[in-house]
Design a protein that fits this description.
Structural class: alpha/beta
CATH topology of the largest domain: Rossmann fold
Largest sheet: 10 strands, mixed
CATH superfamily of the largest domain: Thiamin pyrophosphokinase, catalytic domain
Number of domains: 2
Strand order of the largest sheet: 4-3-2-1-5-6-7-14-9-12
CATH architecture of the largest domain: 3-Layer(aba) Sandwich
Shape: globular
Order of helices and strands: HEHEHEHEHEHEEEEEEEEE
Strand content: 25-35%
Number of helices: 6
Distance between the termini: 7 Å
CATH class of the largest domain: Alpha Beta
Number of strands: 14
């Protein structure tokens, strides 16, 4: 399974870790192990330390950090009290300011369903100016605005979402084909399956989000 995500593991070496479900499966942990730079939302600091990972930067309003951690990590903490943005957006804005390359976001799903939906929407918006993926313990969400071919295995679960309802999609290499279709509801491109070692999602006139499950 690692092989079909080898491109992502080599490309996305800047990591943001949010305060959702702790990364604990093989692929998410490999992202952390291969990372060159880790930006941690403050609420996730304890979770990262628990699995033996120390971030390069901790960012947020710092209301979740103990006084002991404030002292210990004072040189890497960036306190941002701006209430207009959540900590994930603060981390994304930091990466933009630093002109970091492709970014993988971990810990943005799980624990609260409303947070996961909000975070997907946030990442879809920021993907207009950043090369982003979101990695959960169950799979990878890739944000696309052009025809994209993905490595896969037969039977892999695949879903395609449209947040704006404007994009026109066609699928190749998936069990349930789609031809020049616009999805106006989130569920319409979901619950598909790969039929071989690759599949292609064609998109025009908007953006799409492609989910591939870790089998």
């Amino acid at each position: 399974m690692e092989n079909i995500f080898a491109h992502e593991l080599s490309r996305y070496s800047t990591i943001i870790v949010g305060n959702g479900e702790t990364p604990q499966e093989e692929i998410p942990l490999l992202f952390l192990q291969h990372a060159r730079f880790i930006v941690c939302c403050d609420g996730a600091l304890e979770k990262l330390l628990h699995i033996g990972i120390q971030p390069n930067v901790v960012i947020g309003d710092c209301d979740s950090i103990s006084e002991e951690q404030r002292i210990k990590f004072k040189d890497i903490i960036i306190e941002d009290q701006n209430e207009e943005y959540n900590d994930l957006q603060k981390a994304l804005k930091y990466c933009l300011r630093q002109q970091f390359g492709p970014v993988a976001v971990l810990g943005a799903s799980g624990l609260r369903d409303d947070h996961q939906l909000a975070n997907l929407s946030i990442l879809n918006m920021y993907s207009e100016t950043m090369d982003l993926i979101m990695v959960s313990n169950y799979g990878i969400f890739t944000f696309i605005d052009k025809d994209t071919t993905f490595a896969s295995v037969s039977g892999q679960e695949v879903s395609v979402f449209s947040f704006d309802g404007q994009a026109i999609f066609s699928f190749e290499g998936l069990r349930y084909p789609v031809q020049d279709r616009r999805f106006t509801q989130l569920w319409e491109g979901s619950l598909n399956k790969a039929t071989s070692e690759r599949f292609t999602v064609k998109v025009s006139g908007g953006r799409g989000v492609v989910f591939r499950e870790f089998n």
